[in-house]
Design brief:
Elements lengths: L2 E7 L4 H10 L3 E3 L2 E8 L2 E8 L4 E6 L15 E4 L11 H9 L19 E4 L8 E8 L3 E8 L2 E8 L3 E3 L2
Antiparallel strand pairs: 1-5, 1-6, 2-5, 3-4, 7-8, 7-11, 8-9, 9-10
Length: about 170
């Protein structure tokens, strides 16, 4: 029976490990998300692993020679619990795969915040202002709708800079 297992990749070599595992005939999957990155006065959107240093591989440990995974370029080791690899809960991988878009990026949203929820800003120039979440943006950011100086403005802040107002 095929189940999903966790592969620990070498630093910054998750994509290399996925490529090499797929070349060997394993079904490997590296969940990625989009993140905004500031570099040289430009803001770029880049794809980064959802779980840095880790990817998943689907195996039947009874029938497949899984020990070859540990010798794959980019792989540090297959996570195991002593005798053999430790399988992931099926619901976890299924939920993660459902969140992936057609382009392969996962929409990883903070579990405690939802669109339309009222929040209080805890740091930055709008500290103690109450706002409504307009959108959960990539890169651990949230877009807010604020009532400031008699008008409504939108702002994008770090997820860590807001707390539920409830």
């Amino acid at each position: 029976m095929k189940r999903w297992y966790v592969v620990n990749a070498r630093p910054h070599q998750e994509a290399r490990a996925e490529l090499n595992l797929n070349r060997q005939g394993f079904r490997a999957w590296l969940p990625v998300m989009e993140r905004s990155r500031r570099h040289a006065r430009r803001i770029d959107t880049v794809r980064v692993p959802v779980f840095p240093g880790y990817l998943f591989v689907e195996l039947d440990v009874e029938r497949e020679a899984w020990s070859a995974i540990n010798g794959t370029y980019g792989v540090r080791r297959l996570l195991a619990d002593g005798a053999g690899p430790q399988a992931l809960p099926e619901a976890f991988v299924a939920a993660l795969r459902e969140s992936a878009s057609a382009q392969g990026t996962c929409a990883v949203a903070p579990a405690d915040l939802r669109t339309g929820e009222t929040v209080r800003i805890t740091s930055g120039p709008f500290v103690d202002c109450v706002a409504v979440i307009q959108e959960l943006a990539p890169g651990d950011r949230v877009k807010l709708l604020l009532n400031v100086l008699g008008g409504r403005i939108t702002a994008e802040v770090s997820r860590r800079a807001v707390a539920s107002a409830a």
